[in-house]
Amino acid sequence: MSFAELLDHVGGMGRFQIIYVILLAIPVFMMASHNLLQNFTAATSEHHCHVHINISNTPDTNLTGNKLQPEKCHRFVTMQWQLLDSNATITNLTKLETEPCADGWVYDKSIFTSTIITEWDLVCDFRQLKQMAQSIYMAGILVGGIIFGGLSDRFGRRSILIWCYFQMAVTGTCTAFSPSFTAYCIFRFLTGMAFSGIVMNGVSLSVEWTPTRTRAIVGTTYGYCYTTGQFILAGMAYAIPNWRWLQLVVSFSPLSFLIHSPSILLFSLDAGMRQTLSESNMQKEIASAKSSYTFIDLVRTPVVRQISFCLSFVWFSTSFAYYGLAMDLQNFGVNIFLIQLIFGAVDFPAKFISVLTISFVGRRFTQALALILAGLSILANIFVPQDLKTLRTVLAVFGKGCLAASFNCVYLYTSELYPTVIRQTGMGLTNTMSRLGSIIAPLVKMLEEYIPFLPLIIYGAAPIISGVAATFLPETLNVPLPETIEEVETRSKPSHCQLLMHTSLTGVRAFLYKVF
């Protein structure tokens, strides 16, 4: 009798599972705050060079732009007093000598009183450090996936989860007191590592301790918690315009004590539940968990190897396109708090529809459709003029919703495809590919300086291709969780009907390749 069957035998989704899921879901409310925090703590305010004189009510004393607007990165070497006279004739400004902003910058603090941009002058020649800081945070999530994925399979989910809660609280708080940009990046890196461990272990623990028929609902519950966190972030950022205080509240507010304390209760609940299980089954589970499995097992056998390759591409493309949209809120030309709310709101219908298709149609269909629709909506923006901001925003929001549905599905799908003995190692691999996508996304954005529509082509093509790759994955709807690699290999042997379906899918893929 497998553990999933044993779980159904002792009562299925009972009070223990409900409490278990709720306690594991509480920390997810703050995950979005850490992940998308730099949209606000690193927001770029309007700025211009600081000038030598101080004349009240004359903010435009350094008018070097074509439309007599303050220049962001240069100033006149000598003061051009004639520019202050609205009746004066404007000479050719390009012939006047300019210099870099040697005395610093003046920032518009009407929206954000302080950000890492204004505090450390990450503008002009240093503007790329903003993207570097976000990439370093994502690199921390990548490293955390590699480290905590393997450690969880070896030492258990619960112990690693408790440590990651503690690490996120400490390093997030230290970030708020960073004395320099270098220290800020180091603490953000460590926070990213903790984020990865919390997400991976939280999802795996929930899936492993809930019956097969309720796994989709549990997975979507986590998705809605993350979505609600985006609303919480927008509200906190609006109420707290200082980046240090915002970082501190997110990391170590009284709510954080509530978030991190359930791990103690999880320990006692876990121990009590295990005492009610069959001793022989638990011995089998423990012996299997202690067996020696490594990263090589993800590619050693043909079926698991195919699963690993397809999932890697799905995770990479989903994260790549998602953060290409979600971390570029200021470029939509609307209120940054409003667009954050809209980007969060679209997740509710997207994830609701995805849970219906996940539960009644299948994981594979949902995964492929969400990715392909996301890619098409991003590509459609190439043909929309820049002045149609509303239409461009609608397409971007739709694409973001599809990518949210893809994330909602792939977390559950991945945990169901990998067997228990290598599940966290597999989650570590796919998490790594996801973070590679999130790291590369801002670098691709820089290509628009050479070809304006090239980033959209790349952001759109990747989900479409990975959507096709998702059709190669086995379906896991109403299938018990596999416990061993051998079980995955045996279960995935195709029947006659599956061979006919595979032939049909192959024809469809060939047609798509010819079209695109």
Automatic annotation (TrEMBL):
Chief location: membrane
Determine if Transmembrane helix is one of this entry's keywords. Answer: yes
Q: Which Pfam families match?
A: MFS_1
Q: Which GO terms describe its molecular function?
A: transmembrane transporter activity
* PROSITE patterns assigned to the protein according to its UniProt record, in alphabetical order: MFS (PS50850)
**Residues annotated as transmembrane:** 12-32, 135-153, 186-209, 221-240, 246-269, 307-326, 332-353, 365-384, 390-413, 453-473
User: What is one term from the GO cellular component aspect held by the record?
Assistant: membrane
Task: Recite the UniProt keywords alphabetically.
Answer: Membrane, Transmembrane, Transmembrane helix
InterPro entries with a match to the protein in the record: MFS (IPR011701), MFS_dom (IPR020846), MFS_trans_sf (IPR036259)
Q: How does it sit in the membrane?
A: Multi-pass membrane protein
Outline the extent of the Major facilitator superfamily (MFS) profile domain. Answer: 89-478
Its annotated compartments are: Membrane
Per the record's keyword annotation, is DNA damage included, yes or no? no
Q: What is this protein called?
A: Major facilitator superfamily (MFS) profile domain-containing protein
Organism name: Gopherus evgoodei
